[in-house]
Amino acid sequence: MKIFRMIGRSFRDAFKSVFRNISLSFASISCITITLIIVALSIIASLNVNNFAKVIKHDVTMVVFIDNAATSADLAKIETSIKDLDNIDSIELKSKEEVKNEMAASSDKLGSIMKDWEPKDNPLKDTFLVKVKKLENIKKTAEDITKIDKVVVVDYGEGMVEKLITTFNAVEKVAIVAVIALVVVTVFLIVNTIKLTIFSRKREISIMRLVGASNFSIKTPFVVEGMVLGIIGSIIPILLTTYGYLAFYKHFQGQLFSPLIRLILPEPFIYYIAGAILIVGMLVGMIGSYRAVQKYLKV
Questions:
Q1: Tens digits of per-residue pLDDT, 140-170?
Q2: Phi-psi region of 254 (alpha: psi -120 to 50; beta: other; left: phi over 0)
Q3: Residue 221 pLDDT class (50, 70, 90 cuts)
Q4: CA-CA distance, 62 to 101, in Å (whole number)?
Q5: Which string of b and e fits 44-62 if b means at least 16 CB within 10 Å?
Q6: Which end of the chain is more exposed for a tag (fewer CB within 10 A), N or C?
Q7: pLDDT tens track for 90-116
Q8: Is pTM beyond 0.90 here?
Q9: pLDDT tens across 231-287, in order?
């Protein structure tokens, strides 16, 4: 019970101290707010870039062209053979009539040319649209499909896909490194700002030591105060990023420039971001206060 009373007093004293030292508290809160906004924007941008990469990777489709001599039984056999491969995510058959109708619908000129085609005159080929689980292994999968009997050509944009994979992998790594670097810089800035706040109260700490207060009882109010500063400093970044992202998503209708570049759905994404901002703010506030008090206690 004693420890709970001590923690309760620490929270009470922490809130009093924040308002008693309002100018220094404001400096710490401002630093926390600004840096957390930068971190939040960086995290949102990084996660959306990764999402763009995943969406585009998932939308890459192999088109498998089948010999016109293939029968319905041959098509079923080819489909089974493709499904048996390890890297297959999904497969869809498009008959040459479906392909003709889609092409005719896409262009008035093609429609006028194809409207008189009879099924027996259709020169197009039945095709399978195949998506893979791992884009990195698409070349090997295409080679395996090419070996299947009655398969004429497998097209997946060879060359361009490999460049996409290399580019996306590089972008993902850069984004992760950038976010980590920003978090580290943020922690450094906030910790040092809070250290300045604690430094101005080193006389208060010395008096507490002289009257026989234990290290724990001295540290606790300051650590709690750091947490309170972190929470207060997180409020504006949370509001700006959550409502800002919602407005941004609605304004661009969930995509940038193209349906391929889709933004992450706001819910529950914004709640995860808000939680991350709050946790980072609390932790760096507590760490900054703890390290500063530790220095003056000489423990």
A1: 888 888 888 888 888 877 666 667 667 777 7
A2: left
A3: confident
A4: 20
A5: bebbbbbbbbebbbeebbb
A6: N
A7: 888 887 777 777 777 777 776 676 666
A8: no
A9: 888 888 899 888 888 888 888 887 776 666 778 888 888 888 888 888 888 887 787
Q: Are strands 258-262 and 255-256 parallel, antiparallel or unpaired?
A: antiparallel
- The residues, ordered by sequence, that sit 6+ positions from 152 with a Cβ below 8 Å of its Cβ are 65, 66, 67, 125
* DSSP annotation of 259: E
Place of tokens 């039984």: 73
266, 267, 268, 270 alpha-carbon torsion, rounded to 10°? 40
Phi, psi values for residue 121, rounded to 5°: -95, -10
- The rounded distance, in Å, linking the Cα atoms of 77 and 67 is 13
* The pair of three-digit structure tokens given for residue 13, joined into one six-digit string: 């004293």
Here the tokens at position 222 are 């300051």
Alpha carbon 212 to chain centroid, angstroms = 50
Q: Please give the pLDDT value at position 299.
A: 45
Measured distance CA(217)–CA(14) in Å, rounded: 13
User: Beta strands 151-155 and 258-262: pairing type?
Assistant: unpaired
Is the distance from CB of 219 to CB of 297 less than 8 angstroms?
Answer: yes
Alpha-carbon distances of 264 from 51, 52, 54, 175, 236, rounded to whole Å: 7, 9, 11, 16, 22
- 3-state SS track over 85-122: CCCEEEEEEECHHHHHHHHHHHCHHHHHHHCCCCHHHC
CA atoms within 13 A on the CB side of 33: 13
Among 4-18, 181-195, 266-280, name the one with the lowest average pLDDT: 4-18
